[in-house]
Amino acid sequence: MTKATYRIQGATGEWEVVIGLEVHAQVTSRAKLFSGAATEFGAEPNTQVSLVDAAMPGMLPVLNEECIRQAVRTGMAIDAKINTWSRFDRKNYFYADLPQGYQISQLYHPLVGEGEIEVELDGGATKTIGVERIHVEQDAGKLMHDQHPSFSYVDLNRSGVALMEIVSKPDMRSPEEAGAYVRKLRSILRYVGSCDGNMEQGSMRADVNVSVRRPGEPFGTRTETKNVNSVRFIMAVIEYEASRQVDVLESGGSVVQETRLFDPDKGETRTLRSKEDAHDYRYFPDPDLLPLELSDDFLRECRQSLPELPDAKRRRYEKELGISAYNAAVLTAEVETARWFEELLAATGKTGPEVGKAASNWVISDLFGALNRLGRDITDSPVSPVQGAELLGLVADGTLSGTLAKQVFEIMLETGENPAKIVDERGLRQTSDTGEIEKVIAEVMAANEDKVADYRGGKDKLFGFFVGQTMKAMGGKANPQVVNELLKKALG
């Protein structure tokens, strides 16, 4: 399925936007990249700083193997080339939150080479976005400007925290594509467990590179907007920057290659500094760190540790469980949802399309609807997967009708009780007693003789009226299938 091409309508014609993203993802690890200091979010300022992080004289970096392992696993998850030989470089610049006076990164020989990520767009279209590289580097500290009226303070808790910089190719052509790419990348990272993807806490953020050109012409000059920490803001940066650059070019000006900042309150970007090139940072190999060489055993262990990834899980749900493409996409988008659903399926003790369809529909309709209403997410669900499986089982064996199941579910949400207990204690069991149902049908027909005559006279749509009245008279406990069969006989 094709999708309409995104274009910016300028005064002099159409323009195309070209987008590349550099996503900085904090590696899941209890220690920093080159020291044993903790990485827990929210700690008091400067309480998670080793002598290495503070760049005390004579301190030498020691590489954290777990950080390398997580970056390699991430590369494997996007089918990227893993470089068995890589090297760390020093990126030299001076800033108050960078105590060493340089950042240890990987410019020339990154750990991970080219890979790709397939994204789903509105309308069912898909697109493959290329990943140029993933390299590992240490984070800088943080300046705090609101602690004193005339001074800025420095918090070095983040100094030395391990980051994966995931650099895309300039393959995106719309804000929607960029948003889909970041969401998909975040999903993969969280499945792999290499980053928690918490953009609000800064453990995943993006530098947004934007340029514009006439369709088919060479790339234009790009700007880079730093440290954008939500998908919505990334899309807003692209829209604003693309329009701003078109206005500049159409007025006869030139786009300046520079670094910019995004103001979320105003929804616009502003100049931060002129864009530096690699030579401005005086990169050179870090003399304190040997080149990194990966063994076959290490790579094998990394690959074997990978979980089933979202695309593979989605395809399995569709093929083996008969789940619709939409439901499968929703259930696999977030790793917590997929885990909850897997536990639900396991608790039913059954496999195949019948249980798969019923379970997926219940999760997406009933459970998600309740969680949205309660303002909770699936990790905080008041109903467990085991309880959900028990409820589905009661529907499957005829103990509960769909209507009764909804009543039982609401009671489960309020009380936390198991569905079987609720059914027994509150008498909510569905009845298939034909004698009892026939008696109620006779009463309904006697009370509505005019409608019986109308139905028998050809008004077939009145059948639903009789079903509703019968179910109402039996408090929703009658088996709908039995009611339908007996009504057809009674009404002739």
General description of the model:
Helix content is 40%, strand content 19%. It is of the alpha+beta class and 492 residues long. The chain folds into three domains: 8-302, no CATH class; 308-426, no CATH class; 434-491, Arc Repressor Mutant, subunit A (Orthogonal Bundle). The strands form four sheets. Strands 1, 2, 6, 7, 10, 11, 12, 13 and 14 form a nine-stranded mixed sheet that branches. A three-stranded antiparallel sheet has the order 5-4-15, with no helix packed on it. A hairpin with a 4-residue loop joins strand 13 and strand 14 (268-274). Helix 6 (325-333) packs across helix 7. The longest helix has 22 residues, at 353-374. The radius of gyration is 30 Å and the shape is elongated. The chain starts with 7 loop residues before the first strand and ends with a helix. The relative contact order is 0.09. The model has no long low-confidence stretch (mean pLDDT 93). Pfam families: GatB_N (PF02934), GatB_Yqey (PF02637). Keywords: ATP-binding, Ligase, Nucleotide-binding, Protein biosynthesis, Transferase. This is Aspartyl/glutamyl-tRNA(Asn/Gln) amidotransferase subunit B. Heterotrimer of A, B and C subunits. It catalyses: L-glutamyl-tRNA(Gln) + L-glutamine + ATP + H2O = L-glutaminyl-tRNA(Gln) + L-glutamate + ADP + phosphate + H(+); L-aspartyl-tRNA(Asn) + L-glutamine + ATP + H2O = L-asparaginyl-tRNA(Asn) + L-glutamate + ADP + phosphate + 2 H(+).
